[in-house]
Amino acid sequence: MATVAKKSKKTRSSGRPSDHLTDEQLLKMYKTMILSRKLDERSWVLNRQGRAPFHISGIGHEAIQVAAAATIRPGYDWVYPYYRDLAFILALGMKPVDHLLGLLGKAGDPSSGGIQMPSHFSNAKLRIGSISSPVATQVPIAAGTALACKLKGTDEVTVVCLGEGSTSEGDFHEGLNWAGVHKLPLVCIVQNNQYAISVPMEKEMAVKNVADRAAAYGITGVVVDGNDILACYDVMYEAVERAKRGDGATLVEAKTYRVTPHSSDDDDRTYRSREEVERWKKRDPILLFEKVLFERDILTTSLQKEIEDWAIAEVDAAEEAAVNAPYPEVEEMHKHLYGPMPNWED
Amino acid sequence: MAIMNNIEALRETLRQEMERDPRIVITGEDVGPRGGVFRATQGLYQQFGEKRVIDTPLAELSIVATGIGMALTGYFKPIVEIQFADFIFPAFNQILSEAARMRYRTRSDWTVPLIIRAPYGGGISGGLYHSQSVEAFFAHIPGLYVVAPSTPYDIKGMLRAALQLDDPVLFFEHKKTYRLIKGEVPEEDYVVPIGKAAIRREGDDLTVISYGLAMHDAVKAADMLAAEGIYAEVIDLRTLRPLDKETILASVKKTGKVLIVHEDNPTVSVSSEVAAIIGQEAFEYLDGPITRLTPPDVPAVPFSHPLQDAFMLNPEKIARAMRTLAAY
User: Fold this and answer.
1) Predicted confidence (pLDDT) per residue in B258-288, tens digit
2) Among residues 251-290 of chain B, which lie with CB inside 8 Å of chain A?
3) Looking at the domain assignment, is residue B191 inside a domain?
4) This model's pTM is above 0.90
5) ipTM > 0.95 (yes/no)
6) β strands within chain B, DSSP E
7) Tag placement on chain B: N or C end, fewer CB within 10 Å?
């Protein structure tokens, strides 16, 4: 069975990786969560205003994503995110405008130049791999990347994310089987938000925890409260260290909840109660983190307001830039099918 | 100059290129100590070690996917083997949705220089699932190169060309040609450009367009017809995506008659595409119906010998179709 990670405590106790995070680091993580939340909320607004055709949200998932980013080396370690990883990619160094350019299908969208649907993040400089829409395909690809790093003899770690719904795909199984066979420097984060669109967890799998499956691949499995950012950090830190040491892959299951509908085209009132959603909103990862930060006197009411104002200003500026940015030229559709052919005639 | 069969040319080219480029790794099921079920990688594990010739789990999806993931790092140039083309379909989504679209969907930020080798084709008592021609499924996909070399010379030249590309290549090898077809393979380096067809035999009376094992049968049929005073031009497509329109159209404009021959099912196949190109771009040069000769439109080659023989093409069947067209 997978191990279950410890919860965060009010005060720092010795022996947990997150104890060593400085106040500045903790505040930076908090700011990224707030920025991601404001940007996500703005994306919903743009959709409801009819200006963005589609949005898929990461609200409620921010803790595990920001924690994961804090444990790796952006631009050095490899990350295959999934479509709810807005906070993750912001924490790695992508900008709010990068997301909004994609949301609006603008030429400057650094992920795909407006070719892909929104939130299909990619950034080669930051080693953020590109994903498609068929789910879980990135897991065996990430295993290949981890294998390449291992064969090359680097200490680069590969992190791959997906939702629990996607773990039903064969790609997930095959990827983790490779991770086990080759003892790969891989961390697979399953953000378990308990629904595959409308299908609840109990109709997706018979096991209680996705991480229990790790045993079948001969890798480490850990369950963590995905709304508790410090607990997530602890688990991710250990997993990344395990990978760097050459001790193999970890399947991290971050239990969380999707407080929004699956996407802007979904209506979650058709399959779950408002009470259930409201219950989870009280466990919002931002609220939980604020509680810790207030208790440790790192956050004050005025600083909280300052950070919120900063985030809104960032999002305002990003929106203005994205709205005013040009659409791709039609000729772009015909480009980037193939690289240049070598000159074989000579 | 050495005389080799197709599998020897393949193996020697893999060996030479691996000696030259330490980034090349081979993965696949049984490619290691066993040297592959067709012996394509025989001796390579022993020469290059387990870090460069990697036996994989029996899982085509992830054989391709891990190849993609390795290629994305730029650290390696993977050549992955699918043991039989019939078993490539679990990996279809990885090839279609990931390998073929990575460059397009990231505006060339990420590329997948990956070679996927797969033996295809029948005539070897392989039944429905060890004999299929699967090339049309992949030739449909923008972002892929699809090649089907059928001579030892071309196998070396096209594998070397494929290794110089920065995009995924489906490298289909007709398994019956592995030991059946022999030819000269120069020691020195050369490439056979991808996207270029070959004229195997020149003639003015009609054009036969083919590839793979059927192309060899078509050359034999053309030899038979030459004895009867009918001179056919035989084109070996070699690359199925992109098609060499220039060579196809030049020949058809010269002869006015065209027969397209392949072992794959006819419906929505390579011959469908070649016929459409000729119909649209050389209509006024045609002096007869664009004709196709393929096996019947049934799933694949049946196991039982008489059924297999009835399914497969041969020089006599092709010669008959050529005579009919020549007389039109």
Assistant:
1) 999 999 999 999 999 999 999 999 999 999 9
2) none
3) no
4) yes
5) yes
6) 2-5, 24-28, 53-55, 77-81, 115-120, 145-147, 169-174, 182-185, 198-201, 206-210, 232-236, 239-241, 258-261, 291-293
7) N
